[in-house]
Amino acid sequence: MKNSVKAFAPATVANVSCGFDIFGFALEKPGDEVILTITDTSGVTIKKVEGDCGKLPWEADKNTAGIAAKLLLRHLKKKI
What we know:
The chain is α+β, with helices and mostly antiparallel strands. Helices cover 16% and strands 29% of the residues. The chain has one helix and two strands; from the N terminus they run E-E-H. It has one helix at 64-76, and strands spanning 4-13, 25-37. The protein has a two-stranded antiparallel sheet. The longest helix has 13 residues, at 64-76. The mean pLDDT is 83.
């Protein structure tokens, strides 16, 4: 069984016409890539952040990806 999964979310361009968000579209690049790995330790730990010039927090409670991961685990009632 694999213990890792990788996901890519493309950046978007919104408000490209008359200010309506429905005219937004996804770009092939840039975007965000997340690799989630299940370990023997419970909780969410961020191991690496690239391309942000040191601006994004590594603390899971202060990082939007970390917060989302923690909320998903809580919703699924998983203690991994």
